[in-house]
Write a structure and sequence with these properties.
Layout: H1 2-5, H2 13-29, H3 33-46, H4 51-63, H5 67-73, H6 75-87, H7 91-104, H8 107-123, H9 127-140, H10 145-157, H11 161-183, H12 185-195
Helix pairs in contact: 2-3, 3-4, 4-5, 4-6, 5-6, 5-7, 6-7, 7-8, 8-9, 8-10, 9-10, 10-11, 11-12
Protein backbone atom coordinates (compact mmCIF):
# COMPACT_ATOMS: atom_id res chain seq x y z
CA UNK A 1 0.00 0.00 0.00
CA UNK A 2 2.86 2.39 0.79
CA UNK A 3 4.41 1.80 -2.63
CA UNK A 4 1.08 2.41 -4.34
CA UNK A 5 0.52 5.64 -2.43
CA UNK A 6 4.00 6.91 -3.39
CA UNK A 7 3.85 5.59 -6.94
CA UNK A 8 4.03 9.01 -8.57
CA UNK A 9 6.98 10.21 -6.40
CA UNK A 10 5.62 13.66 -5.55
CA UNK A 11 8.28 16.36 -5.62
CA UNK A 12 6.99 18.51 -2.83
CA UNK A 13 7.30 17.47 0.81
CA UNK A 14 3.67 18.32 1.55
CA UNK A 15 2.46 16.05 -1.24
CA UNK A 16 4.69 13.27 0.05
CA UNK A 17 3.30 13.76 3.57
CA UNK A 18 -0.26 13.53 2.23
CA UNK A 19 0.66 10.36 0.31
CA UNK A 20 2.13 8.86 3.48
CA UNK A 21 -1.02 9.73 5.41
CA UNK A 22 -3.14 8.01 2.76
CA UNK A 23 -0.87 4.98 3.04
CA UNK A 24 -1.21 5.03 6.85
CA UNK A 25 -5.01 5.09 6.54
CA UNK A 26 -4.86 2.13 4.15
CA UNK A 27 -2.67 0.20 6.57
CA UNK A 28 -5.04 1.05 9.41
CA UNK A 29 -7.91 -0.38 7.37
CA UNK A 30 -5.85 -3.53 6.83
CA UNK A 31 -5.10 -3.76 10.59
CA UNK A 32 -1.38 -3.45 9.86
CA UNK A 33 -0.33 -1.25 12.78
CA UNK A 34 3.39 -1.69 12.11
CA UNK A 35 3.15 -0.40 8.52
CA UNK A 36 0.77 2.36 9.64
CA UNK A 37 3.28 3.50 12.25
CA UNK A 38 6.15 3.47 9.72
CA UNK A 39 4.17 5.64 7.31
CA UNK A 40 3.22 8.11 10.05
CA UNK A 41 6.79 8.37 11.33
CA UNK A 42 8.05 8.98 7.78
CA UNK A 43 5.45 11.72 7.37
CA UNK A 44 6.70 13.35 10.57
CA UNK A 45 10.30 13.20 9.33
CA UNK A 46 9.18 15.28 6.35
CA UNK A 47 6.97 17.63 8.38
CA UNK A 48 7.52 17.39 12.13
CA UNK A 49 4.63 19.75 12.87
CA UNK A 50 1.99 18.03 10.74
CA UNK A 51 -1.01 17.92 13.07
CA UNK A 52 -2.86 15.03 11.44
CA UNK A 53 0.26 12.83 11.38
CA UNK A 54 1.04 13.66 15.02
CA UNK A 55 -2.54 13.00 16.08
CA UNK A 56 -2.69 9.70 14.19
CA UNK A 57 0.63 8.48 15.60
CA UNK A 58 -0.35 9.61 19.10
CA UNK A 59 -3.63 7.74 18.74
CA UNK A 60 -1.87 4.59 17.55
CA UNK A 61 0.61 4.67 20.44
CA UNK A 62 -2.20 5.43 22.89
CA UNK A 63 -4.39 2.59 21.62
CA UNK A 64 -1.54 0.17 22.15
CA UNK A 65 -0.70 1.53 25.62
CA UNK A 66 2.80 2.63 24.63
CA UNK A 67 2.85 5.61 27.01
CA UNK A 68 6.62 6.05 27.17
CA UNK A 69 6.89 6.19 23.39
CA UNK A 70 3.95 8.55 23.31
CA UNK A 71 5.72 10.76 25.86
CA UNK A 72 8.87 10.67 23.74
CA UNK A 73 6.93 11.75 20.67
CA UNK A 74 6.38 14.96 22.58
CA UNK A 75 4.06 16.66 24.99
CA UNK A 76 2.03 18.14 22.16
CA UNK A 77 1.15 14.65 21.02
CA UNK A 78 0.15 13.77 24.57
CA UNK A 79 -2.16 16.77 24.68
CA UNK A 80 -3.70 15.69 21.37
CA UNK A 81 -4.14 12.13 22.66
CA UNK A 82 -5.74 13.46 25.86
CA UNK A 83 -8.17 15.55 23.78
CA UNK A 84 -9.01 12.51 21.69
CA UNK A 85 -9.63 10.46 24.85
CA UNK A 86 -11.96 13.17 26.16
CA UNK A 87 -13.84 13.24 22.85
CA UNK A 88 -14.10 9.44 22.92
CA UNK A 89 -15.24 9.59 26.56
CA UNK A 90 -12.42 7.18 27.43
CA UNK A 91 -11.63 8.33 30.97
CA UNK A 92 -9.25 5.47 31.72
CA UNK A 93 -7.09 6.33 28.70
CA UNK A 94 -7.24 10.04 29.52
CA UNK A 95 -6.04 9.34 33.07
CA UNK A 96 -3.10 7.27 31.82
CA UNK A 97 -2.17 10.01 29.35
CA UNK A 98 -2.38 12.70 32.04
CA UNK A 99 -0.10 10.63 34.28
CA UNK A 100 2.44 10.32 31.47
CA UNK A 101 2.18 14.03 30.72
CA UNK A 102 2.65 14.96 34.38
CA UNK A 103 5.86 12.92 34.48
CA UNK A 104 7.28 15.00 31.63
CA UNK A 105 6.53 18.39 33.13
CA UNK A 106 8.00 20.30 36.03
CA UNK A 107 6.97 23.09 38.37
CA UNK A 108 3.71 24.91 37.75
CA UNK A 109 3.16 23.11 34.44
CA UNK A 110 3.29 19.79 36.28
CA UNK A 111 0.89 21.18 38.86
CA UNK A 112 -1.59 22.16 36.14
CA UNK A 113 -1.58 18.63 34.70
CA UNK A 114 -1.91 17.12 38.18
CA UNK A 115 -4.98 19.30 38.78
CA UNK A 116 -6.54 17.95 35.56
CA UNK A 117 -5.67 14.43 36.69
CA UNK A 118 -7.14 15.04 40.16
CA UNK A 119 -10.37 16.42 38.73
CA UNK A 120 -10.73 13.46 36.37
CA UNK A 121 -10.05 10.94 39.17
CA UNK A 122 -12.55 12.69 41.44
CA UNK A 123 -15.12 12.57 38.63
CA UNK A 124 -14.59 8.79 38.43
CA UNK A 125 -15.10 8.47 42.20
CA UNK A 126 -11.44 7.67 42.87
CA UNK A 127 -11.12 10.05 45.83
CA UNK A 128 -7.78 8.78 47.25
CA UNK A 129 -6.03 9.11 43.87
CA UNK A 130 -7.63 12.48 43.28
CA UNK A 131 -6.51 13.69 46.70
CA UNK A 132 -2.91 12.55 46.04
CA UNK A 133 -2.82 14.27 42.65
CA UNK A 134 -4.23 17.54 44.01
CA UNK A 135 -1.92 17.54 47.02
CA UNK A 136 1.06 16.86 44.75
CA UNK A 137 -0.07 19.76 42.55
CA UNK A 138 0.05 22.00 45.62
CA UNK A 139 3.54 20.69 46.44
CA UNK A 140 4.71 21.92 43.02
CA UNK A 141 2.67 25.13 43.08
CA UNK A 142 1.45 26.10 46.58
CA UNK A 143 -0.33 29.16 45.15
CA UNK A 144 -2.42 27.12 42.70
CA UNK A 145 -5.92 28.31 43.54
CA UNK A 146 -7.65 25.72 41.35
CA UNK A 147 -5.80 22.84 43.05
CA UNK A 148 -6.66 24.26 46.46
CA UNK A 149 -10.35 24.73 45.61
CA UNK A 150 -10.65 21.27 44.03
CA UNK A 151 -8.96 19.65 47.02
CA UNK A 152 -11.26 21.45 49.44
CA UNK A 153 -14.31 20.44 47.40
CA UNK A 154 -13.09 16.85 47.31
CA UNK A 155 -12.33 16.62 51.01
CA UNK A 156 -15.54 18.33 52.07
CA UNK A 157 -17.52 16.19 49.63
CA UNK A 158 -16.01 13.11 51.26
CA UNK A 159 -16.91 14.41 54.73
CA UNK A 160 -13.25 15.02 55.56
CA UNK A 161 -13.47 18.58 56.82
CA UNK A 162 -10.78 18.08 59.47
CA UNK A 163 -8.45 16.64 56.85
CA UNK A 164 -9.07 19.75 54.76
CA UNK A 165 -8.14 21.96 57.71
CA UNK A 166 -4.95 19.99 58.31
CA UNK A 167 -3.96 19.83 54.65
CA UNK A 168 -4.80 23.36 53.60
CA UNK A 169 -4.93 25.47 56.72
CA UNK A 170 -7.69 27.53 58.21
CA UNK A 171 -7.33 30.51 55.85
CA UNK A 172 -8.07 28.45 52.76
CA UNK A 173 -10.96 26.65 54.45
CA UNK A 174 -12.47 29.91 55.71
CA UNK A 175 -12.29 31.38 52.19
CA UNK A 176 -13.99 28.25 50.88
CA UNK A 177 -16.73 28.47 53.54
CA UNK A 178 -17.33 32.13 52.74
CA UNK A 179 -17.80 31.29 49.08
CA UNK A 180 -19.99 28.29 49.94
CA UNK A 181 -22.14 30.36 52.32
CA UNK A 182 -23.21 32.55 49.40
CA UNK A 183 -24.24 29.55 47.31
CA UNK A 184 -25.29 26.97 49.92
CA UNK A 185 -25.64 28.61 53.35
CA UNK A 186 -27.13 25.51 54.98
CA UNK A 187 -24.23 23.32 53.83
CA UNK A 188 -21.70 25.94 55.04
CA UNK A 189 -23.33 25.95 58.50
CA UNK A 190 -23.31 22.14 58.63
CA UNK A 191 -19.59 22.13 57.94
CA UNK A 192 -18.86 24.82 60.54
CA UNK A 193 -20.81 22.82 63.17
CA UNK A 194 -18.99 19.65 62.21
CA UNK A 195 -15.56 21.28 62.47
CA UNK A 196 -16.34 23.00 65.77
Amino acid sequence: ALAAALEHEPDRASERVEALLRAARLHRGDDDAEAEERALREALVLDGEHREARRALAGLLSETGRWDELAQLDEHALELAASDAVEARDEAREIEILRALAERRAGTQRADVLVRLGVRLAHRGEAPGAQRALQEALDYDPANRVARAELIDLLFGEGLELAALRALGSTAVIAYLERLSMQQPTRALEIVHKVL
